[in-house]
Amino acid sequence: MCIRDSFRFVKNLSRSASRRCPLPPPGEVRKETDAVVFSTIIFLLRFLPITLALYYLAPPKLKNTVLFLCSLVFYCWGEVRFFPVMLALILINYLCGLGLERFDRNRTARLVLLLIALAGSLGMLFYFKYANFVLSSLNALFGTSFAAIPGISVLPLGISFYTFQTLSYSIDVYRRDVKAERNIIDFGAYVVMFPQLIAGPIVKYRDVSDQLHVYKHRYNLKQIEEGMTLFTFGLAKKVLLADAVGALWTDIIGVADSPSTTFVGLANASTPLVWLGIIAYSLQLYFDFSGYSLMGIGMGKMLGFDFPANFNYPYISASITEFWRRWHMTLSGWFREYVYIPLGGNRKGLKRQILNLFIVELLTGIWHGANWNFICWGLYYFVLLALEKLFLLPYLKKGRVWPHLYTLFLVVVGWAMFVGNDAGVEFGLLFQKLFIPSGGVSPLYFLRNYGVLLAVSVVCCTPLIEKLWDVLRKNVVTRCAAILTLLVVSTAYVVGSTNSPFLYFNF
After folding, report:
1. Do both 55 and 166 map to the same domain?
2. Dihedral of alpha carbons 76, 78, 80, 84, sign
3. Does residue 214 sit in the same domain as residue 229?
4. Is residue 407 part of a domain?
């Protein structure tokens, strides 16, 4: 049996589901032009400057109100019909939080209120993100004919992120780790705060609760400068690196929005070219997601909030365990705190630890998308992490170069699984091309055209750029010149581009 056949189950599920219960293709859940995303002209030259001006000019007591209202405008720009969904989640968790404090000594009432809050957040997430996937899977597995639920082909903007924030808030209030927020405007500002709404980082209430209640002197010029610097670096990551290196992947794979009029197509690509393409996709995904996160952290700084870091050079990791400590750190931290540790973590023996790890990685895969390839991706990492826990980690710690190569190889293979449902990608064919040598279009042409960009991208995956910046930032002239140049070039690139897709937009 070839590799292509080994993935036939996943492929057949998707095909059968589409016949019985037609659903929008993954990746077409939402058109990005429907929303004000960070790397668009309307955001850079209109929304952000206006919002910052209103925020800075507002009286101290009204800053949270301005932030809340502007964030709602940002949210509603993408899809105003989901405005009630956002308000419902805010109200449910706000009222349940107050109730948890009101009935502090009544265990039954507290448990009921917690379950209501959890059901509200998880129920919304399940309904919009997974309901049609479950129906289509049932159709494929059992031959049923459930029709797709109309009206949920488009995901509410950032629902996977802000539902996790409301979940953490209600759980923390239940645990008495934080006090319930009594001002609904302040709570609403926390939930819908636009810098982290689309792509995180996932911010716990306790991370920003103190800052929410500092009305005077919430920010200073140094914070604003730091925020602008982080935002500029994030924007450059997104438009100068992610979009540019992503063009290599789209030229190879042949998606509809490929910048090339003559793309190769997966079926025509040689094995070396497919490997080059999936490496390009791996770089694109990192710069895309980390760039957006960095922009969000930078804007948070400009508003007077310190958001947690979301990435720490994950591609320099020497194990899969280390990789998940460096990649999307707020998500892995969330699962560790609210799922892994409550299940027992590593405190109840190795067998229980492996089971807990299985649950976490399965949920991680499911969180990333309602599709079988994401579930396979999560279980793939479970196997790798379990093997490291069982016996591999001691050997990896002794190595110097090979652990890094081992990690990079497995991560890139994982991203091939991750992208396996995108337009132009056939799951089984992709893996067949990767692991069974085949002829086709050579990678030499693409290496000549993209070689310098790939080399720069690889360097930017390491701390070398940060060390260089540490030298440049010591002089105010070089610091300002570097940031201004980078901002102008990045903005010019946005002006000149017709499309700047965000890969994590549908989560």
Report:
1. yes
2. negative
3. no
4. no
Number of domains into which the chain is organized: 3
Q: Taking the CB of residue 474, how many other CB atoms lie within 10 A of it?
A: 9
pLDDT (tens digit per residue) in 477-497: 899 999 999 999 999 988 877
Any domain includes 256? yes
Sign of CA pseudo-dihedral 49, 53, 56, 58: negative
Buried/exposed 401-422: b ≥16 CB within 10 Å, e otherwise:
eebbebbbeebbbbbbbbbbbb
Assess whether 213 and 70 both reside in one domain: yes
pLDDT attached to residue 144: 86
Looking at the structure, tell me whether residues 43 and 161 fall in a common domain. Answer: yes
pLDDT in tens, 374-419: 999 999 999 999 999 999 999 999 999 999 999 999 999 999 999 8
| Sequential DSSP letters for 334-365 | HHIIIIITTTTTTSS-HHHHHHHHHHHHHHHH
* pLDDT, tens digit (0-9, with 9 covering 90-100), for 239-292: 999 999 998 998 888 754 445 555 788 888 999 999 999 999 999 999 999 999
In a domain, 374, yes or no: yes
Token reading at 424? 């132009």
The 8 Å CB, 24+ separation contacts for 384-390 are 384/320, 384/410, 385/320, 385/321, 385/324, 385/357, 385/361, 386/354, 386/357, 386/358, 388/319, 388/320, 388/321, 389/321, 389/350, 389/353, 389/354, 389/357, 390/350, 390/354
- Which structural domain, as residue segments, surrounds residue 387? 319-398
State yes or no: pLDDT of 326 exceeds 60: yes
CA separation for the pair 36, 106 (Å, rounded): 44
pLDDT tens by residue, 28-63:
344 434 556 788 888 999 999 999 999 999 999 999
- 128 and 163, same domain (yes or no): yes
Consecutive H or E run containing 412: helix 402-418
Of 201, 218, 235, the one marking the end of a domain is 218
- Domain match, 132 and 24 both: yes
pTM, to two decimals: 0.89
Separation CA 344–CA 353 (nearest Å): 7
10 within domain boundaries: no
* Mean pLDDT confidence for 365-373: 91
Buried b / exposed e along 34-50 (16+ C-beta atoms within 10 A): ebbbbbbeebbeebbee
Mean pLDDT calculated for residue range 201-209:
94
Q: Which of 393, 403, 410, 412 is nearest to 458 (CA)?
A: 412
Q: Which residues are catalytic?
A: 368
Instruction: List, in sequence order, every residue forming a beta bridge with 269; answer none if it has no partner.
Output: 441
Residues 204 and 248 in one domain: no
Where is the domain boundary, 218, 244, 265?
A: 218
The answer on 307 and 159 residing in a single domain is no
